[in-house]
Design brief:
The chain has about 230 residues and is an alpha/beta fold. The protein is about 50% helix and about 15% strand. The chain binds cobalt (II) ion.
Length: about 230
């Protein structure tokens, strides 16, 4: 398929230029990376092309371990995500796990507003629908469609970060005294800025009352929500 080759030609040219530029700035860059990666952070984000993990937080190759899927979902039965988590924590010894949702997330919007795809994506987004179901009363208080989606994006980041906290990997790491914290963020496509959601769990005790604290904070920021 010659058309295909043309379409990818610019990518290969970009790659050659990038490699040359990096090497020119730092001759040892790639040889250092080949020897080891020592990321301090695991990023669990959405696959959305507008949310490039390394760029957003200004980190170089080797500095950020990344897992992305539709709507940044973390489930206990997803061997892919759980393997990344285990490797990051047990082998790479990252110090922070950050779950990053983003406003305007198409996956979250589909889970919230439909329609169902009739395919395997429905199963996947079922995890986001679980989040919506858990917070149904809160979500129902927001009449504005956009604001409602924003809220669900935040709630989804919160709940997926809690799933990280409750994973076997994190529980075992904390039990053996490993220094490790879990965070929930929401990224704004409109201005490229990250909002932290008041989730910063350094030990199992931090989980006590955390969901309620975050919910009060999130509710206070949404004018249509009456005090819980
Ligand atoms: Co998304």
């Amino acid at each position: 398929m010659p058309g295909m080759e043309n379409a990818l030609k610019s990518l290969l040219e970009n790659n050659a230029r990038w490699s040359a530029d990096v090497t020119q700035r730092d001759a040892e860059f790639f040889s250092r990376l080949v020897r080891q990666q020592r990321p301090e952070y695991l990023w669990i984000g959405c696959s959305d092309a507008r949310v490039p993990a390394n760029d957003i937080v200004g980190l170089l190759p080797g500095e950020l371990f990344v897992h992305r899927n539709v709507a940044n979902v973390v489930t206990h039965s997803d061997v892919n995500c759980q393997s990344v988590l285990q490797y990051a924590v047990d082998v790479l010894k990252v110090k922070h796990v950050i779950v990053v949702g983003h406003y305007g997330c198409g996956g979250v919007q589909l889970a919230l507003e439909g329609p169902r795809s009739g395919g395997v994506a429905d199963f996947w987004l079922g995890h986001v629908r679980d989040v919506i179901g858990r917070h149904r009363d809160l979500i129902a208080q927001i009449p504005d469609t956009r604001a409602r989606l924003d809220l669900v994006v935040e709630l989804n980041s919160l709940e997926q970060a809690l799933n990280v906290c409750h994973s076997a990997t994190l529980q075992a790491a904390w039990e053996r005294g490993q220094k490790l914290s879990v965070h929930a963020w929401a990224y704004d496509l409109k201005d490229g800025r990250v909002r932290t959601l008041g989730v910063s769990v350094r030990q199992p005790d931090d989980l006590k009352g955390l969901r309620d604290r975050v919910l009060s904070r999130v509710s206070a920021e949404h004018p249509s929500i009456s005090a819980p």
